[in-house]
Amino acid sequence: MPKLWQYGPYIFFCYVYDLLNEPAHVHVRAGNAEAKFWLNPVRIAWNHGHKSDDITRIERLIHENQNRNNSSYFVIARGDSPEAIPNAD
Questions:
Q1: What's the whole-model pTM score?
Q2: Residue-level pLDDT at 89
Q3: CA of 62: how far to CAs of 21, 52, 79, 80, in Å?
Q4: pLDDT digit string, tens, across residues 28-77
């Protein structure tokens, strides 16, 4: 489960299995809540436990960090190790 980046309580990550079997997307976890967002175009796939305000905030963060999401995702998909990605706080 490579971590792509983090903003506050939101951890943006992907599952390696998904890289080979699904279009580009990120999972976002905060506490026990997790959601999945497709990246191109950005839209929610599913949500388990995030409040609607959190979903709005997460979607905005994904839009604001689209280049980071795409480059980190495809580096990992190639099998390379991503450089440490600092907190976006």
A1: 0.77
A2: 47
A3: 21, 15, 23, 22
A4: 999 999 999 998 899 999 999 999 999 999 999 998 877 665 555 555 55
Measuring CA to CA, how many Å separate 43 from each of 16, 25, 35, 56?
Answer: 20, 9, 11, 11
- Residues pairing with 25 in the sheet: 38
- Does residue 88 contact residue 7 with C-beta atoms inside 8 Å? yes
Please tell me whether residue 65 adopts helix, strand or coil conformation.
Answer: coil
Contacts with 43 (C-beta within 8 Å, 6 or more apart), sequence order: 37
Instruction: For the chain, give every domain's residue range.
Output: 3-77
How far apart CA 89 and CA 84 sit, in angstroms, is: 15
